[in-house]
Amino acid sequence: MAATRRPGRNHLFVPGPTNIPDRVQRAMLVPSEDHRSVDFPALTKPLFEDTKKVYGSTDGTIFLFPASGTGIWESALTNTLCRGDKVLTARFGQFSHLWIDMAQRIGLDVVVQEEAWGTGADPQKIEEALRADTNHEIKAVMVVHNETATGVTSDIGAVRKAIDAAGHPALLFVDGVSSIGSLPFRMDEWKVDCAIAGSQKGLMLPAGLGVICVSPKALKVSEGAAGRNDRLAHVYFAWEDHRKQNPAGYFPYTPSLPLLYGLREALACLFEEGLENVYHRHHVLGEATRQAVAAWGLKTCAKDPKWNSDTVTAIVVPEGVDAAQIIKHAFVRYNLALGAGLSQVAGKVFRIGHVGDLNELSLLGAIAGAEMAMNDCGLKVTPGSGVAAAANYLRENPLNKN
Ligand code: PLP
């Protein structure tokens, strides 16, 4: 059966994939070309340098994989670690859970600090665990910067301070899938060793391009592990294969041309706006969303303002209300895609993604739609209350810093 036609634009407010700017879509409309041609490096070589800027890195090395963020998790782990290596991490949402699951399944010894969903990584606990590890058995600390399932941002600068305070040599791996390109990310300053991103969130592209920025320290660890027979297996995600070809502008296998052209245009969009402006815009839109939630008399999943994410807000519905019903109704009736509650919070939250290419009026559309859907589904909030609160905040807080 043909899909129902829904006139007008779909209002896409899941926290990824995000809206693709028209000019980025047009940039991806390219004929196929020879990815081994003499012309190809003119496209690719600047991409490696420019992509580093959204990571806040000059020292790092970028690898671009035809993959999603999940593949890049695997790339970070398998290029640096050996079977049975100990890694330290915290679980506080579905994505931190899935990364832990992957680490266990590929043969790592994962030390998990359980944190309440709605909170994030605890630098003090991380420091204590590292101090106790006097033999330096922990080889890496893994942290999800922005837990997309709960709308929580962890403080990576504080995690770095904790590692340094413990005087521990562990590598620092950060999942920046829903932060890089939207929230301040300071790879070099925070001495992040592997920073992981996917194309479909802050980079405003379709899914399919996995991006990792790797520190010189992690590259060295990876080289050092090369001769070991207990090294975690990796072939498709091997950095060494890319390192042989990337400097000349080529890849060890066929890259997605449209995504590379799209990346070039998306980076141009980010740089034209200015990264500091991009971060500021996300903060203002995040805060406007939180003002709306407060006006509805509801709570966010983030348990304290210090955890608030500026790319996604998870809104907790009262006991007896099914958030999944609100999400379905918003889509069917108002052509509005809200984010679902995942795993532990399924049915208990719905999420408004405010990440990527959006502005005041697009956000207000989502808030209006959420308000209508909630009321239609029996969750009575004062009509217009969220829109008014967000609009008032937005009128007083311009998106552009300058
Ligand atoms: N990490 C975070 C924080 C995410 O939000 C996601 C997906 O939403 C992933 C990892 C997995 O990325 P992908 O779906 O691109 O494999």
TrEMBL record:
Reaction(s) catalysed (UniProt annotation): glyoxylate + L-serine = 3-hydroxypyruvate + glycine
Keywords noted in UniProt: Aminotransferase, Pyridoxal phosphate, Transferase
Involved pathway(s): One-carbon metabolism; formaldehyde assimilation via serine pathway
Family annotation (InterPro entries): Aminotrans_V_dom (IPR000192), Aminotrans_V_PyrdxlP_BS (IPR020578), PyrdxlP-dep_Trfase (IPR015424), PyrdxlP-dep_Trfase_major (IPR015421), PyrdxlP-dep_Trfase_small (IPR015422), SP_NH2Trfase/AEP_transaminase (IPR024169)
Binding site for substrate: 351
Modified positions (N6-(pyridoxal phosphate)lysine) in chain numbering: 201
Name of the top EC class for this enzyme: transferase
UniProt GO BP: glycine biosynthetic process, by transamination of glyoxylate
A molecular function GO annotation: L-serine-glyoxylate transaminase activity
Pfam families, per the entry: Aminotran_5
Record domain Aminotransferase class V: where: 76-342
EC number: 2.6.1.45
Cofactor(s) required, per the database record: pyridoxal 5'-phosphate
Family from the record: Belongs to the class-V pyridoxal-phosphate-dependent aminotransferase family.
Protein name: Serine--glyoxylate aminotransferase
